[in-house]
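ingest -> validate -> predict -> emit
validate: passed (alphabet ok, no gaps, 236 aa)
predict: started
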Amino acid sequence: MADIALATSFLGTSNMPESFLVVDDHPLFLDAMKLAINTAFPSAEIAEANTLASAFDTIEGDGEFDLVLLDLNMPGTRGFEGLLELRARHPKLPVVIVSAIEEPETIHRAMTCGASGYISKAVRKPELVGAIQGVMNGEVCLPPGYVPPDSPANETAEIIARLKSLTPQQLRVLNMLKQGLLNKQIAHELSVGETTVKAHVSEILRKLGVASRTQAVIEVSKVVLPDEKPSDADSA
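emit:
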């Protein structure tokens, strides 16, 4: 396979990062990522998480990380929800997507959602090591031969922009709306009052430019990965 393509980034860093978080639910790939990181940075500290919930707990409990390597297909989330929530909750934390999906539109959407780079899971260890080193040196890593879509779907771009305007708590509420939870149930899950939940829902509807909870769920369900399809519950 051709070497990973590297392009200069505006996010250059002056200090060599040494703390990594790998978020993936496949044990074998977790091991492969840790081996690649240790090859690139022998003294690196590496944490791992196999769910987004545990990733957030790790970030908030263990302090700052220099880089998060995130798989798009994680349990309990669909499409770009995990990336959007991670960027909303920790906007200064660099996140690189490591995924088996190589479609240009998916890569474009991931970068639009705030990813600092995109690495294919199909690369060999030497290319993976080189990609990690490149990212740590302040470069943007993209799959070889990647060309941005000529005319990205304007509707999708607008939806992503609106989703990025939501606060971390609003993203959590939106995810619970997708699960079909009522305000009372959401309030219980978040340990807040129903009035607070209603205020969040109102802001979500305003920011997404829709008039109802159902329309909000339909809008966010349009931002899916190539191998995903909106469920019946999403379109109900």
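The two ends are 44 Å apart (CA to CA).
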